[in-house]
Design a protein that fits this description.
Low-confidence stretches: 1-15
Largest sheet: 2 strands, antiparallel
Strand content: under 5%
Mean pLDDT: 81
Number of helices: 13
Structural class: mainly alpha
Number of strands: 2
Shape: globular
Amino acid sequence: MPRAMMPPMLSQIRQNGLPSWAYKAALLLAAAIWGMGTVVIKSTVDEFPPAWIVGVRFTFAGIILGIATAPRISRAFARNKRGHLRDGAVLGVFLFLSYWFNSTGLTDTTASNSSFLTTLYCVIIPFLGWIIIRKRPTRYNIAAAILCVTGVGCVAYAGIGEFSLRFGDFITLASALWLSFHVLYTAKYAPGRSMMLLTVIQFIVAGLLGLITGLITEPVPNFSQLGADTWMSLIYITVFASCVALGLQNTAVARVDPAQAALFLATESVFGVTFSILLLGEAPTISTYLGFALIFVGIVVSEYLPLRAEKIATQKARAAAEAAALDCKQVETQATDLEEADAFMR
């Protein structure tokens, strides 16, 4: 039954009997977990090097997710081993690069800046997609890009006539670019693949790349000397920021309007700033707050408005088709009545 035809109470119920607000709350919870994850990494990265964070996080997340979904992914793997391994490996490389750059950026920028600069991938994707899949950006994408560039300028504003982005800010912007590649190629590889199996493979690949990079470029952490806070941070970003948040997102996005889902997930940056202020004592300037606001508005313009416009256009087209069908039916009824009246007169 189409949603518009459902009774008010039934329209709030989904496949497993939960109301729609429960799925929206799940998206908000996932965004909050990821926002908190930025703060956790920021507080850990000085004691535990960035590549090692990525290595430990995704290696164990892949193992945990693989064990939890073993029966399901084993069937998918048996159907297509080579395709899943190839595509999962490519996605794993992009995943590693995006999170390695992001964690490295946190060594020289604030958690607040990292939260908002990372979400610029929402604006980068349409323009990168123009190159990869030949789809031109819309007017919404262009407007969003202008808003976000202005927002980055406000974040970089350091005083009268002074603008400066630190090394960590540039590295974080680069992580947003790699994340854009990851999202686009995920969409490209998803058809005909098990997303759960692809996720497990890319987690393992990203984790192994992190461990290898850590061995080559960074000192090996002394695991026996790590404090309880560091262990708790590693557990958080491995279990909650990787496995749990991913599960919440995958469950909810299938049952929430895409425009609304994008908006809920975009609040990750807001949660990141909020937690960084409350837990790390960061104090963004008025210019920084203005930059955050412009970036968030740009994300809404890029993600929410095009989907909403498309939905409205679809509804109008459907209404027009229904009206045309009704008119045809009325004409047919009138013609039938005239024929019957003519036959009666005869």
